[in-house]
Amino acid sequence: MRSQPGGAAELRRVADYLHWGDAWQRWLDARAAGASPDALAADARILQAGLAERLARRELGAAEARQIHAVLVASSVEDPGERARALQAYDAELARVQPADDARRAAFSRRQADLVAAWPAAGGGRDHPGLAEALEAQRREFWSDSPSGAAKSAVPASLHPPGSVDGGPR
Description:
mainly alpha; 6 helices; globular; 170 residues; single chain; disordered C terminus
């Protein structure tokens, strides 16, 4: 990869992303192990600072970044009102940095993140098959009025025969 045009820069980007991902996993492990709130808060600020770069490089989607931000804020901000304001400010920032053509996708991502965040409280587990069904139903509903026409098939394109209407040419 290094010998390819832009290869060295791409290697640095991938290494940066992997370092950030490792830091995120270490933070999750520390939280699960009962690390002090002060230590978690300090590391949370570092992780939050990296979210903008991950988004700009399209290494994370808006929904994933919002979920990560919500977890970090929940662990470092005690006041529920302050947490809500922090999430609203982050949502506003996400909407601001998304390109105009991605505004609809960002809105969909926020709705999807909200559904995933609310699912355990609604009695479903994170691995519950009903979550996948609920996400698919939400996707169909949201995109059914898309400018390009009807919602996409629920069957992944990779499972359609080549050249079919939903599968398209490969």
